[in-house]
Amino acid sequence: MNIATQYLKRPLCGEKLEASNPAVLAAAATGIIEFIEKTGGDVDRIFGHAGIAPEMAGEPTLKLSLSSFCRLFEEASRLSQHDNFGLWFGNQFLPRDLGLWGYAAISSPTLGTALDNLVNLFRFHQESSVMSLYRGKSGLMRLEYQIQVPDIVERRQDAELSLGMFYNVFRESCGAGWAPEEVHFEHAKPENWQEHETAFSAPVYFSQPANALLFKSDILKKPMPNQDLGLMTIMQTCLESVGKENNQPVSLTSRVQSTIRTKLPDGYPSLEQIAAALQLPASVIQRELSQEGLSYKELVETTRQNLALMYIKQRHLSFSEIAFLLGYSELSAFSRAMRRWTGFSPRKYRTYLDNA
Asked: Please, what's the b/e burial string for 155-194 (b: 16 or more CB within 10 A of its CB; e: otherwise)?
């Protein structure tokens, strides 16, 4: 039985998800059980913390809650005490293991077409997230990826495994020795950040506006070694069929909060700056927030609080670094905010977490 027939014969089954609960195809977790075991983790405990049954991982037409998927990799990192779990999981991930989406890419005629397929079909593979391919101001091409769900605050492992997966699509065409010019991550620099430069064989920058691979455009015409136009077309059709059911647009409030998150390291973002980034009038944003009983100031405050409580767990980050990442010009301002949110200073709150 060939690949196309295998996928066409599979039932379009999956986790029942509400329209407001974005999903990702479980193929993105192919091989995680073996990788957890390799890193000395407890499979049942990790999946239990994430609220996912182990047998769901890797099923090509099964949908998982995106928040549960991200939590699975965060818990795998935490409970296996392997801080760069997502980085190395993505580094060894074969594109064909992405199922329908992966086969649509590797069966494309050229690398450029493969990347176009990844971008154009991404919404069927993963919801409430964005992927784009364009030429940046530096002249380099940028393949960008970002989750647009503000409630998924801890998503570092997902970002690192995702760029690793994309990296291997490039290597499928360009060979194992290919490396991007730069790699960007939206999260703060982790403790063992040198491993990231080893994994990608390239300079890696953190606290960036988006997760991205930067590369020269001359490789886009390189052929894919397993090109098959018939298979590519079937995979496109199957993926559209599987992914079409629960693809709700991201709310404007979520888009605003996601944009606030990316702008904070540059200082407190004004409403006008966010409106310009979203190419919308500020009045439209204010009206939308007002209808949800929110103000722009409250949304910035909520975003800062959620990020602060995540950053404070990362002991390698100094309080001055956290203050910078949250857009505070002075450490004292961050300290006052922490007391307002938790009743503790940053130092006392970190000690409280250590003793909890």
From this structure: bbbbbbbbbbbbbbbbebbeeeebbbebbbbbbbbbeebe
Superfamily of domain 252-355: Homeodomain-like (1.10.10.60)
Question: Which of 305, 274, 301 lies closest to 288 in space, CA to CA?
Answer: 274
Q: How far is Cα of residue 298 from the mean position of the Cα atoms in its chain? A: 25
Radius of gyration of the chain (CA): 21
Residue 351 DSSP class: H
Q: What DSSP letter does each residue of 43-77 carry, written as one string? A: HHHHHHHHT--GGGTT-TT-EEEHHHHHHHHHHHH
**How many other C-beta atoms are found inside a 10 Å radius of the C-beta of residue 23?**
25
Alpha helix ranges (H) inside 226-345: 229-243, 252-263, 271-278, 282-291, 296-311, 319-325, 331-342
Q: Is the pLDDT of residue 2 over 60?
A: no
315-328 pLDDT, tens digit per residue, is: 889 999 999 999 99
> Which sign does the torsion angle of CA 64, 68, 70, 75 carry?
negative
CA distance linking residue 150 with residue 298, whole number of Å: 14
How many whole angstroms separate alpha carbon 338 and alpha carbon 344?
A: 6
Tens-digit pLDDT profile for residues 27-86: 999 999 999 999 999 999 999 999 999 999 999 889 999 999 999 999 999 999 999 999
Return the amino acid letter for 104. A
The residue ranges of every structural domain in the chain are 3-243, 252-355
Residue 279: CB atoms within 10 A of its CB come to: 6
Please name which of 95, 97, 119 lies closest in space to residue 34, comparing C-alpha atoms.
97
